[in-house]
Amino acid sequence: MKDPYIQENGTLKNKLGITEYKELNDAEKDIGFVKLIDIGESFKQKYDAEYIRNIHRHIFEDIFDWAGEFRTVPVYKTEIVIPGLSLEYSAPKNIEKDLNVVLEELNSTNWSGKNIDEITAQFTDQLARIWRVHPFRDGNTRTTLAFAENYSREHGFSMDIGILLEQLTRLVTPNGDVKRYSIRDKFVLAALDKKDYPEPEHLQILIKQSILSGIRKEKEKQSKLLDIESAQDTTKKEEPER
User: Which domains are assigned to the chain?
Assistant: First the structure.
């Protein structure tokens, strides 16, 4: 099947008129990073398939005409961490159904009473299953991360998405050896079928670091607000009567 999303040289069609893969990849990172920063201010959350479409549209609307639209073709991507093979992503006709299965479970999860390791393990598994659907022709990892940040904030274990965004790119030596695998590589390992021996622990480490950092920053933010309120109260008490 001819892929309607790509140009003759294999680069994704885009609004920017870019024909080279690396240039488009760099533009995606720059524009997408800015959009990811304000993602939490952009939506009132209802965590369904339409919400995921809205996140993708928000991040990529300046780059792709099809931003926010579920892909209409199968995808096959050879992965470095499962040498030369690809995961079996959801068929286009099953995308919304497969997303709803995971989202229904996620939305019915009771997070209270769970410790950080339990939250990390369960949330990582659910995020990997959302990612495995691969609803869009491109941008699935960033969309999943943005979804994770907003969902976690609303459910009491705020994530520091900056820690995850730092891992978007795979680092390679001049000789071609991998110095650091990307977060996408870790999603691949976490999303493997049980029979293929998944390794979710690599993604779990990053998710846990992100949650711990997010919780710490939220506590610092609340502490500063309390300090300001306390200082204002003290000032009011010291003002002389008139």
Answer: 21-231 (1.10.3290.10)
